[in-house]
Design a protein that fits this description.
By secondary structure, the chain is of the alpha+beta class. The protein is built from four helices and eight strands. The strands form three sheets. It has a four-stranded antiparallel sheet with strand order 4-5-6-7, with no helix packed on it. It has a two-stranded antiparallel ribbon with strand order 1-2. It has a two-stranded antiparallel ribbon with strand order 3-8. A hairpin with a 6-residue loop joins strand 1 and strand 2.
Length: 284
Amino acid sequence: MQKLFAYKAQITSALIDSVNQNKSSVIRESIRKKYEEIQKVLDEDLKVTLTQLEMEEKAAVTALEDLMEKNCTVIQEIEQDLARLAAELAQRDILLPDEMDTAMEDRVKYLLSGTDPSQVKLDEPKADQILSLANKMLLVIRSQIPIIKRLNKSYSTDVSLDPETAHPKLIISHQGDSATYTDNWQELPELPGRFDTTLNVISLQGFNSGRHYWELDVSGKTYWELGLTYPTISRKGRAEDCWLGRGSDSWAVEFFNGEYTAWHNGVAQPSTLCKTLQPYWGAV
């Protein structure tokens, strides 16, 4: 009877795992599709915006070309009029007055100035408005990503290191937010809670329940451990129980020799992480 119950329990556990995996797959697929929809909307909006600007640019260039063609026609007519007038005056032996020559020249210059490409007028206020809206949209998107990090930070918990638990070769900052290793053994009071062999320090705050998130900067460090422990962790001597994750009352993530390892109750579990975290984000 006991064997049958155990067998049923194993089947039930397998079914639960299968259901959880299916749910996880559905959630992942739904999130992936939403990101694809967001990207599709952004791509479409970019396409429409660039098309609009291109159409306005082409319209401005076309208007300029039409104006240039019209002015060229007018200039040709002026040149023809000048040639005819000069011929008539030549037949009468009359010189063309300087004032009339200057007036004709000014008229030609005026017509030519209207075909200056620098005079092309685009709808600059609209372009500025589009740029402003795009910048605001970028700020909104940046403020929302990465989503997972923002979600984790909603569980943010302030912790400060307890200097009365720190090993004598660890210098704890006044704010309790950093620990620095020193080769010199500091003359510190012998307290029951102080680690005297392992280079450990624990926080003043403790947690009984809930989710908690914190960040730890480990940049440039070649070896470190980050973990959780019950207050009952051994503090004295060389017993492995003093190390995080080596006893039954603590858990730890260790970085050493370029590799990450998870520890609990003295059992090591290699991690799939293959790059140095900087900073390391911790959550429980």
